[in-house]
Amino acid sequence: MEGAEIVRLNLRINGQPHEVDDVWEGESLLYVLRERLGLPGSKNACEQGECGSCSIYLDGQLVCACLVLAGQAEDREVVTVEGLGGSNDLHPVQEAFLEAGAVQCGFCTPGLIVAAHELLSRRPDPSESEIREALAGNLCRCTGYEKIIDAVSLAGRKMAGGST
Ligand code: FES
Ligand code: FES
Predict the structure, then answer these.
(1) Rounded distance between C-alpha atoms, residue 10 and residue 154, angstroms
(2) Domain residue spans in the chain?
């Protein structure tokens, strides 16, 4: 393909440095994460930035990994859903989604968890409308969203150390 370059990509993912060879710099960061690095938590649904299932942090900003070119991730800091909990522990947001019954098929869940985490990091006690606005870019075909809203509220209380 004209203009395509094969590059070695250096980036940090979930706190660890990674060097990835033979990357076409026009391929998506989502492809690099899933297919080259074996991190399947970020889901691949629309590949057009419309469903939020591939939500990650890039240098602390919430982005859709399907819209980030691999070449744009050079020397950047990536955090995926796999990086939110400990190796043996679920993050409180993950716990809350399970406890609130907000997971059905689960396909949307990783992206929702990253988006909810981002919301709660800047707004620890969000209103329902703030939650709905923050998650507007994350599509769920199963739950009808009510339990997702409950889960995010519960996660906020858990993260504040309050009652669950
Ligand atoms: S797969 Fe990235 S937004 Fe849908
Ligand atoms: S739980 Fe199935 S798409 Fe959300």
Answers:
(1) 37
(2) 6-83, 92-159
Mutational test site, ligand 1, from 28, 54, 140, max ligand atoms within 8 Å of CB: 54
For strands 55-58 and 77-79, give the pairing.
antiparallel
Q: What count of other Cβ atoms lies within 10 Å of the Cβ of residue 153?
A: 19
DSSP 113: H
User: pTM of the entire structure?
Assistant: 0.94
**Using one digit for the tens of pLDDT, what is the confidence trace for 141-150?**
999 999 999 9
CB atoms within 10 A of CB 2: 3
The string of DSSP letters for 42-95 reads S--S-SSSSS-TTEEEETTEEEEGGGSBGGGGTT-EEE-GGGTS-SSS--HHHH
What CATH number should be reported for the domain whose range is 6-83?
Answer: 3.10.20.30
Look at 122 and 162; give whichever has higher pLDDT. 122
Shortest-distance Cα residue to atom 2 of ligand 2: 105
Second-level CATH architecture of 92-159: Orthogonal Bundle (1.10)
Calpha distance 9→31 (Å, rounded): 13
